[in-house]
Amino acid sequence: MDYSRSGSANSDMLAVKARTDGRAFSELFAGFLPSIRRLAGIYTNSPADRDDLVSEGILGFMNAVSTFELGRGASFSTYAGKCINNRMLTALKKSARILRAEEPLDSVGGEDISPEKIIIDREALSEIFSEVSQNLTSMEKKVLGMYLNGAGYSEIAEALGTDRKAVDNALSRLRRKLRRKFR
After folding, report:
1. What is the per-residue pLDDT across 141-162, written as a single tens digit (0 to 9) for each?
2. Which residue from 74, 80, 70, 83 is spatially nearest to 16, judged by alpha carbons?
3. Is the dihedral of CA 33, 37, 40, 42 positive or negative?
4. Inter-axis angle of helices 76-100 and 138-148, to 10 degrees?
5. DSSP 83-133
6. Which domains does the chain have, with CATH numbers?
7. Range 114-141 burial, b when 16+ CB lie within 10 A, else e
């Protein structure tokens, strides 16, 4: 995914300058924001969830600006793309763990949340997972389960007796299937 309107070398220099120059930061950010929004849209259909993911992507972008180093083998666009994507995936994993957590209904706070709404939301989520899992291979199901529980590629590969590339391929196929299903 192309994260920047400007060339790679220009983005690299702009990223270094953006640490201390607000104008450079704004210019660089303006080039990345459309891609951050697009990626958030790929991962979710809900406008509220999309806004949360955009926020997470922006935090990933800011982290990339503050930690990018020239000459480390990757362009800023590549580095920032990874930071943004990782931040969004971490937020999605955390959200999935929270949804799976069993909370007593009387301990749930919030103004608009009722026990009925929680049950309806859990049923809807369960239906989505059920529908999605029907289209996954057993390998993809195992990889997804472990990935959503916070396991890394190496840990999944070791547990399943395969290599990291097979895990990466399974997750890539899974993402394509999810995108097709929820567009």
Report:
1. 888 878 877 788 889 999 999 9
2. 70
3. negative
4. 90
5. HHHHHHHHHHHHHHHHHHS---GGG---SS--HHHHHHHHHHHHHHHHHHH
6. 8-99 (1.20.120.1810), 107-181 (1.10.10)
7. eeeeeeeeeeeeeeeeeebeeebeebbe
Could you tell me the two tokens for 179? Answer: 């995108």
Give dist(CA 143, CA 171) in Å, integer.
Answer: 7
What is d(CA 84, CA 69) in angstroms, rounded to the nearest whole number?
A: 16
- pLDDT surpasses 90 at 133: no
pLDDT in tens, 66-85: 899 888 888 999 999 999 99
d(CA 4, CA 14): 11
**Above 90 in pLDDT, residue 140?**
no
Token pair belonging to 30: 């303006």
Query: Do 82 and 69 meet the contact criterion of CB atoms below 8 Å apart?
Result: no
Instruction: Provide the residue count of the chain.
Output: 183
Distance separating alpha carbons of residues 6 and 177, to the nearest angstrom: 31
